[in-house]
Fold:
Amino acid sequence: MSTTIIGFPRLREFRELKFTAKKYFRNEISTQELLTAAKDLRAKHWNIVKEHGITEVPSNDFSHYDNVLDVAFLFNVVPSSVQGLDLSDLERYFALARGYQGEKGDVRALPMKKWFNTNYHYIVPKFEKDTQVKLSDSKIFDEFAEAKELGLDTRPVLVGPFTLLQLSDFEEGVEPAQFVDALVKTYQEVFAKLADLGAGRIQLDEPALVKDLSAEEKVFFLDLYRKILADKKGLEVLIQTYFGDVRDIYSDLIELPVDAIGLDFVEGKKTLELVKSGFPADKTLYARIVNGKNIWRNNYEKSLAVLEQIPAEKLVLTSSCSLLHVPFTTANEDFEEAILKHFAFAVEKLDEIRDLDAIRNGGGAEALAADKELFGTERVGRNAELAARLAGLTDADYTRLPAFAEREAIQEEAFKLSVLPTTTIGSFPQTKEVRTKRLAFRKGELSQEDYDKFLAEQIDEWIKWQEEVGFDVLVHGEFERNDMVEYFGQNLSGYLFSKNGWVQSYGMRGVKPPIIWGDVTRLNPITVKWSSYAQSRTDKPVKGMLTGPVTILNWSFPREDISIKDSTLQIALAIKDEVLDLEAAGVKIIQIDEAALREKLPLRRSDWYEDYLDWAIPAFRLVHSTVAPDTQIHTHMCYSEFTDIIPAIDNMDADVISFEASRSNLEILDELKAKNFQTEVGPGVYDIHSPRVPNEEEIDHTIEAILAKVPSRKVWINPDCGLKTRGITETKASLVRLVEAAKAARQGLK
Structure:
């Protein structure tokens, strides 16, 4: 038996890659310096994986931005708008990811969407009529050769053709089938080049196989792979699946002339049942048994019990998915030992895979004994008062009265806002000065009085600027907040916070998800102080900004000793208390962000409601159900596909919903119209995840497109997300254009 992983974190333990990339983007280092730093990082990672006893080390799991973008770039799937720019290969790559605005042109970034049911975002490739699929990059070969020079015979990893086509956008009139022959040829070219370099096996990642597959999709997949596998160029081919089970395709999948198949025994409900029905003796099964998405220690006894039931003769133990979804190592944390021993980050998960392999081979007795002891004791006690509060909830606690249409009329009269009211999503740029002051306060180097004075000055400045520009509904800017989840978690019982638990969210952006350790209750008011202060500085309404319970849960590492439903309802009651305190303080517009609503939506439609939406949507309603009719509840969602859950979103019973739309070409609007969506909406009119400033006509055209689909009385004008990560100059320039475009659109309605 042997061991492997699907992929390893690439930001490094202290986000070294992020800071190096930022220097490159600021022209502080050369292209070669960026590439050299990345090469050094890859070498360190490969050696770590090897040193921890993993026998098959992957390569090409590294990326400068995103692995889906990497394969698109490898195969020349580059839109003509970028293809024609006089840029270097690396500049062109980053133009796809971040947009480009300079002397050589002006292009938007490609769309960005959630990577299945994770907190990671991928760049969406675009196939056009003139796309010529061909081998146009050498990254996968270069990195294999790099590892070879270090004495490592790695297994190159590449997103498979079926998942690539499933996740891509297509120009109107263009179909995936048009690219099958070219993709077959190009994947086989990759096989041949890797074989020439001395590779023995390639991993093709096909997580799209764990979703619901139509009969047509199954035929498409099988035809595609039969053609590719007709000539493997001497390589062994591993089809790797993850995030669920492959019940729709299993019987056909195991009959393909592949050499190995990876199956998920962590999230795959039916995986064990499927393999018990039979697994070919001539194929290797990569058993994904250690959770790659959560940070809790593996229960060896439970994992071993599963492994003992697997009939496969040739078995490789691996992580359930890439380890990029968890932090780097617990070695950089300062939790007390009684807590720390419950956690396994990426490096520690390597040890867990090695331990399980050793135990199955008659060793690892000490590791097994320690694990049994860990899971044999109760970790945390329960809050009886909270349990009683939850048990006492009735249907009335999830229902807001009066109904939406009546509330809408009441709020229209109360606020008297302009048609097409303008606002932002909440945060303003967190400058170096803001971050420095917050750090100094946290370290005790800045007094509470001086810190409060600084925050008040920031709020005053931005409230005044918003008034001058002409925004209808203002925000205070969230300068006191480090993160939209961590800030709340710091004021809730049951939460723990890592020191260096960084996880890649998109590109080079890292987030540090808090850890839900025990029962969650609110310790004290969280946002009232600065929201009510901001409201006192203006006659215009200022939104109170909160993070919703589903997002707090989904952007945390959740408990595994209770259900995520129960954990979310605990959080919902805490946020409900905050909503009512804001309302009592005179804040009459309250935004409860549910950016991550879709994060844990099951990948199979049959599980959507029973396993998730039937409790996630009521959890949101619980938060705002008892506010007054003239208190307006907003929510915000971003970077996921929401078109297929529109009725569920409408059922959240918010008064206004804003969402990302600029990078997804406003596709959601057609579905809103088709489903007779009642909630007022703020589709994002420009992309804040790119540093470029929208040109003068872009926002005008976007608003025009929105108004063609949604009645003007239902439309709000806002960016597609918060502005925390942007610079002040680009932010102000973009927002001035937004307000001007809204004013022009109002004139056009008269």
User: Anything to note?
Assistant: The radius of gyration is 26 Å. DSSP finds 28 helices and 23 strands in the chain. The longest strand covers residues 284-290. The domain at 407-483+528-749 is CATH 3.20.20.210 (TIM Barrel).
